[in-house]
Amino acid sequence: MSNSAIIIITHGSRRNTFVEDMVNLARYIEEKLEVPVFLSHNEYTEPNWRNIVSELLSKGINHIVFALAFLGRGNHVAKDIMGSFGVSEFYKWVKSTYEGKEINVYFTKPLADSNLVKLALFYRVSTAFPQQENEYIEDPEEIEERTMKFIREKVRERFPYMGDREIEIIARAVYASGNLDLADKIYISQDAVDIGIESLKTGISILTDVKMVSAGIRWNKVENYLDKASELAKEMRITRTAAGIRLGLSSPKIVVIGNAPTAVAEVLKIRKEGVEIPLVIATPPGFTNAVEVKEDLIRSGIPCIVLRGTYGGSSIAVSIINELIRMVRSYGG
What we know:
One of its GO terms (molecular function) is metal ion binding. The chain is an alpha/beta fold.
């Protein structure tokens, strides 16, 4: 409203630093609300709020918000200020008169009951009582090394019969998820690791269901056709992720699916059509289709690494394929 203004009222102080602090506060509110803001005081310091009100009324401004920059509801608030207008309620526009002129006034509450003020005061007081802090490891390589060592030991306790490479793949999935119980949900078909490594050695392309998976894979031949899949998806009445998988599997590729159960279902359809798929890594989460389609993949005979159940996520799929890539590059399989 063009006939509106905000008056901040403080108790007042003769100290210049007090006024400087309050001027900054007034400027902040004015910039945020784009409404004229006037700093005033109840005593000791000029300008006095009474003079500001008189001046604004003379200019035709008759809607005034009084921002009470007091901590509590003392006599200055109730009697000196609000009492001058015959007002006793906060956060409500009230018609009043002042110096014989009609005025609409709106009063904010003092600050002490604000949770933000309480929190600010708590933070400042708490600096006098520093909490004992643990010593944290900051080197990212050391963090990863220690964490992986711990996870490997726990996984091996659960699966003492399992080979080192399978243990490493499960450990990487656990590391990516932060959930040790996930170790019991990882299924690795017979020869899946060997087939994955041998396929990668040939320089095979990796096909993904979503771009988030593509972005995390450390391989120079990663394909995703989601952006080109709309037309095929409409034509076949399937999801875009499923259509993207169909577009990509015109030739054998490792398939990595971290998000879309429908992409796994499409892989199964394409395999029945005679397309060779050397390895599928499937970790899509979900409560509809995800559980069933992942079990169908396990039963299909396609070499696969699967996170069973409703668990899943793109980061887990990425961690598994990157571990296979690491094996190829670091140890030659």
